[in-house]
Amino acid sequence: MRLLRENGPLIRVGHRGAARLAPENTLRSFEAALGHGVDAIEFDVLDAGPGPLVLGHSLAELGPDPATLDEALDFLAGRDVAVHVDLKLTTRLDEVAVALDRHGVAGRAVVSSFHLPSLHAVAAHAPHIPIGFTYPEDRYGVSKRRGLKPAIRLGTLALRRAVVARISAMIARADAKALMLQHAVVSPAAVARAHAAGAAVWAWTVDDAVELARLEAAGVDAVITNDPRLFAQGIGSATADPIPREDP
Questions:
Q1: Domains of the chain, earliest start first
Q2: Angle between the N-to-C axes of helices 116-125 and 167-174, in degrees from 0 to 180, rounded to the nearest 10
């Protein structure tokens, strides 16, 4: 699994497939992401109760007929793309690890979460699968509230300065090979600190060309986006035109 870009190109990751182009966490969304040349596909895994594990960000957002984890991995097993599993469950973690092995994608997979016990459980079941620690957790969806954006901006700038000192501890506590950082808290100093500890930095979720340019200049290894057409504009292009939205 290539987590560090090193001297190669930026790793292009589709968020929940390509959430801006098709319904998120669906095989249709995966197809859209692959059609725009992503290197990896990120998706959420959820325990919806009795039955198989399914793709979904939360129970409240779950569709009427969600794809199962097995369906998703069966689809991705035949594609030349890395697999980024973002855990939205804290139980049945052995099933996640077993499924990645059963479908033959463990060697090109990374599993992430902000929940340390879940990451430790996956590592215990599958020590060969790299772990990514997600930071910070937006537990209440504050980042989506438009009226709070000025306050959020000030808060994230402060957090950007503070997070550098926490990098080493985050990596050590999770035994992480990658940090999945919210893009606003990423700085060159944070990336340098993570790389010095042997961990990659994957930035989420970026849908703006100016921010993409800032992150590439900061040295991140991967950028996760809802709209992989962003990469086609030319990575690092801060003057690219806005991307028109497509109907799902």
A1: 11-232 (3.20.20.190)
A2: 40
Give the tens place of pLDDT for each residue, 66-108.
999 999 999 999 999 999 999 999 999 999 999 999 999 999 9
User: Structure pTM?
Assistant: 0.89
Residue 87: strand pairing partners: 45
Q: Are 122 and 98 in contact (CB under 8 A)?
A: no
Do residues 2 and 13 lie in contact, with contact meaning Cβ atoms separated by under 8 Å?
A: no
**Helical pair 93-102 and 69-77, crossing angle rounded to 10 deg:** 30
How distant, in Å, are the alpha carbons of 72, 154, 193 from that of 83?
10, 34, 25
**Residues in CB range of 242: below 8 A, 6 or more apart:** none
The DSSP letter of residue 242 is P
- The DSSP H or E segment spanning 156 is helix 149-163
